[in-house]
From TrEMBL:
Homology family: Belongs to the CDP-glycerol glycerophosphotransferase family.
Annotated organism of origin: Streptacidiphilus pinicola
Residues annotated as signal peptide: none
Coiled-coil ranges (or none): none
Name recorded for this polypeptide: CDP-glycerol:glycerophosphate glycerophosphotransferase
Lineage: Bacteria, Bacillati, Actinomycetota, Actinomycetes, Kitasatosporales
Amino acid sequence: MPRFSVIVPAYKVQAYLGECLASVLDQSFRDVELIGVDDASPDGSGRIFDEYAERDARVRVLHLPENVGLGRARNAGLEVATGDYLIFLDSDDTLTPGSLQAIADRLDATGEPDILVFDYARTFWDGRVVRNQDAAMLGECQAKPDEFGTAEREQLLRMLMVVWNKAFKREFVTRNGFTFPPGYYEDTPWTYPTTLAAQSIGLLDRVVVHYRQRRMGGNILATTSRKHFDIFDQYDRVFAFVDARPELHSWRPFLHRRMVEHLRAIGSHPDRVPMGDRREFFAQAAEAERRHRPEGAAAIEVSMPFKASAVGDVVRRAKNAAVAAQPGVKRAVARPLVGGFTQLQRQLPIDDELAVFAAYWNRVPGCNPAAIEAKLRELRPEMRTVWVVEAGRRRDVPAGYTTVAPGSRGFWEAVSRARYLVNNVNFPDSAKKRPGSVHLQTHHGTPVKKMGLDLRDYPAAGLAMDFDKLLERIDRWDYSLSSNRFSSLIWERVYPANYRTLEYGYPRNDVYVTAGAEQVRAARRELGIPEGATALLYAPTARDYRVGYEPHLDVAKLAAKLGEEFVILHRAHYSYDSAGPSSARVIDVSGHPSIEQLALASDALIADYSSLMFDYANLDRPIVVFADDWDVYRETRGVYLDLLSGRPGETPGAVARSEAELLDVLRGGAWRDATSTTLRQAFRERFCEFDDGRAAERVVRTVFLGEQTPLPFVPLADRRPAPTTA
């Protein structure tokens, strides 16, 4: 029988669940069972539980057949728990290092109390850690259970009434039949009854839980809904418990006051009870006050305050709008013509048949947005599409595209009127999101390097980034596209907002599964690759610690040493807008509009830290990692993967740390031997799970056609990547 049962229910929390579970399993105190309850979560939470269970025998996973809510999910874990003490941990929170040992020591020191209360700190998305405001009470009242009197218990009941800052003796819980009710505020009819019924309570003056404060989402109680009416049933349960136990009747006046304070707080909050339902809420609150008022006690006023009324809400919103509009007013004064035209366009109806696309900071159509637009033309041909392309690049746009230049009259008309906006980066800060518009962020790679808010710790990469502006931009996203679960977990954490993640695969990668042999041959002919030659694609990523493009690999020298059997396709990173060297065995493809066509034409990839390796893995062709500056890159930019580790699922193939090693890998055959093939297969299994050739169709059907159920995925084993010429 373990000392602790830690029960962790999870629903749509995949970005934080791994950190939560690790915080329990990595504790120095090992006598613990972790019960993960997958509350029919539609994301990867259930899989994450299973992965931890495979690695650690202390983990037990319950997969519920349907979503039942937090309270009943906890009950499911409670039914199978075997530990001496129960700890309920929310799936986006964490235990601090050494906390289980501290709890165990305190339980021993306080004679095995029914409940042990410990402290917590709020951890904010911007890095702040703020300890519980009632922490002083724990220090003052920490004592043995038999010294914990009525006054101390009352202080305890004034703290935040949550279940996750306590350890409960399982025998005490079982003997009293405590369970969680359904609905919102499920902690209320658990914490009050358990705290009042406990014969002994211990205190631990130590931060045990880091209570995550997400920037957006994560707190179901922060949503506007009639579900907040559940609070009345929850307090009915509290008073029913007290009424059934005469020894607790003296607590009714205290509980009555606490209930009224709680109901006022809920009803007055601007983002809880819907505005049209607030009058009804306060009427029920007044009835609850009367129903639970102790005999002979004076009534406590429960009425809707001005700020919670419709007029008060209008005043609040007008004030907020006035504050938010100040920068816009200044810009309008500075640019009256553009500002006036834009405001006029925004007053016109949204055009349901207009979609605006952009890619790579307004370069020519490409990447995921281009693949989505092509499928959109096929499935919804009546839709009009406009691409935002820099004026100097519009001559390079193939025929058939409608384009507007950034900042032009046509641009402002399009972004002001379009129902749909699609980009693999972000639209300008000045292109404010219009209510009713739909923004799809497709991204343009799987992150090896640190991204988003994680760049705050890497000044070489993030020094010029305005993180407040970044947050404003991501607040416009309605959808965030992901090609694999690895990316989803990172995007949701480093870009915290209320968008919906679409784990559909990358549309730009569809061609790697759908292309046939003739398309591959045509791509090679276009590039002038000699018949029978082995084409190596070298496409390095940008370096934040350098200005301008300086190739790390002397491709001409490498090609000469490899001989006529090989040809190198050299593509400089798009951000440099510069060409690379060319020779008889080196073809510069820096200006080629489609990296996908280059990949199809090649036989192998020489990668550094570019996300291209994840896309290329769909082709199931050799990948060689050339990492001569790995240490510098890792320190200046930060990375999520150790590409040089040699671990399956992390390293995509053979690794070279110098030009000499790279030459040996290519000459000696290590680039395509059994070891590199095994690594590539594991890498492909991990990162190509959704790229089955139907990603673009999934996106169009969900975002543009409103279909609710995405197309099923073709299993990896059943996919047939585009063939090579060999």
